[in-house]
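TA notes, week 10

Several of you asked for a full example with nothing omitted. So below is the full record: structure tokens for the whole chain, then the designed sequence directly under it. When grading your own attempts, check the secondary structure regions first.
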């Protein structure tokens, strides 16, 4: 069987189990795809070619001996460059951390290895995960595989780009304000941010310890669920239970952020598909979003600065100026402002929970725009001009503030159109329900 890395984990796992494919051949195919296309995209910061092939050989030997480690056995997976991988540098694509060699694997990397996954390399990312564009990186900017003149989004830019380009079946990212979901939406793949602390962040370079999440990026919801089942602390099964035949879907409107007409049209078509399948679709205004954005910044900034303060003093010039500016700004957020932001966060969580109480799940466009052009700093929307960074994060940070699970799935895209994503959310702890419902709804719009 001549499989390709852009097939689903489900199909690749079946081929590996049935002996139609072996892990070494699949890993070689991924390496060939990276070698052929990554000059254009710059998705990878480092590729572990020799290690990956050796790991694939061991995976094949274990399978030949009768040992089956599960659906990831022999499947290549990429890591964002802020995940510890023993013996390799964890830089967050920041020159100031070039000497930061990991002594051990991050907990999620250990889980991947135990499940038989092949760690193929580390993906490029926005420096320190401190931005939503993917333009700032010591390894160079990441390009969108759908159009190399466009941004990949960030900060898990390379992870999403690598999956979208068919270089690897799946990858891991981190998410502090949308960093798994933003690039997944712009690149046209699935990105899942679980409930807060549902997947361990131990051994993942922190940006904001009360907002950080780890999540998978894959081609389908089913593949994301498979990865989540391996990574979760509870060890839940990957099987998706059938979702109810009729869902009550609450569509969140952002009063201060109007959609690009093309995104709005496709979002409307997706909602029509939900209605056509018998689901109830209702709209509501998501209020206090501007205050939520301000509080998110007032939490993230000082937490990031506390983490990198000493390094900033020691290697000031090794940080990109945009990242350096944010780290300096965080030093000036006083304790009162930080605590007020955390207090608002608690109120905001209760407020959103009340708004969402009438619905099974919440739905919104992942982004108000398609991928902006490389170098584009501002975007025009019907509601006015906003910075590219704000357009990327404004509707996504709510899930991080609340700790709710959120998943972006691609909306239907015609030939010549750029990808756009649709986000679904549920309250904390309802990850498996969300994945099951997202699987059913994604089939309706693709």
């Amino acid at each position: 069987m001549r499989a390709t890395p852009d097939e689903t984990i489900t199909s690749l796992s079946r081929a590996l189990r049935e002996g139609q494919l072996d892990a070494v051949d699949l890993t070689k195919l991924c390496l060939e795809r990276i070698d052929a296309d990554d000059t254009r995209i710059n998705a990878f910061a480092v590729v572990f070619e020799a290690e990956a092939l050796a790991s694939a050989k061991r995976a094949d030997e274990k399978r030949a001996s009768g040992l089956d480690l599960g659906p990831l056995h022999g499947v290549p997976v990429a890591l964002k460059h802020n995940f510890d991988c023993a013996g390799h540098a964890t830089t967050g694509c920041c020159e100031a951390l070039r000497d930061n060699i990991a002594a051990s694997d991050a907990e999620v990397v250990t889980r991947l290895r135990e499940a038989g996954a092949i760690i193929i390399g580390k993906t490029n990312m926005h420096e320190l995960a401190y931005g939503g564009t993917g333009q700032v990186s010591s390894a160079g900017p990441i390009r969108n595989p759908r159009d190399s003149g466009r941004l990949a989004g960030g900060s898990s830019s390379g992870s999403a780009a690598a999956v979208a380009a068919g270089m690897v079946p799946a990858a891991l990212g981190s998410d502090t304000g949308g960093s798994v979901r933003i690039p997944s939406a712009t690149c046209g793949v699935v990105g899942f941010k679980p409930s807060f602390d549902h997947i361990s962040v131990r051994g993942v370079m922190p940006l904001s310890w009360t907002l950080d999440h780890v999540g998978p990026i894959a081609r389908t919801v089913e593949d994301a669920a498979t990865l989540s089942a391996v990574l979760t602390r509870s060890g839940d099964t990957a099987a998706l239970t059938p979702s109810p035949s009729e869902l009550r879907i609450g569509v969140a409107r952002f009063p201060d952020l109007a959609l690009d007409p093309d995104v709005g049209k496709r979002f409307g078509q997706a909602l029509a598909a939900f209605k056509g399948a018998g689901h109830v679709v209702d709209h509501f205004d998501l209020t206090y979003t501007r205050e939520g954005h301000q509080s998110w910044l007032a939490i993230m900034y000082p937490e990031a600065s506390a983490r990198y303060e000493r390094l900033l003093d020691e290697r000031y010039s090794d940080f990109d100026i945009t990242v350096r500016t944010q780290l300096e700004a965080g030093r000036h957020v006083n304790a009162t402002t930080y605590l007020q932001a955390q207090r608002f966060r608690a109120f905001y969580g209760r407020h959103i929970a009340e708004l969402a109480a009438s619905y099974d799940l919440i739905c919104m466009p992942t982004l108000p725009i398609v991928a902006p052009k490389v170098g584009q700093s501002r975007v025009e929307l019907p509601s006015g001009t906003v910075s590219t960074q704000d357009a990327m994060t404004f509707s996504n940070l709510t899930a991080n503030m609340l700790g709710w699970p959120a998943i972006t799935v691609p909306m239907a895209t015609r030939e010549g159109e750029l990808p756009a994503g649709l986000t679904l959310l549920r309250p904390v702890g309802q990850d498996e329900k969300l994945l099951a419902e997202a699987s059913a709804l994604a089939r309706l719009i693709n």
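The CA atoms of residues 62 and 68 lie 7 Å apart. Use that as a sanity check on your answer.
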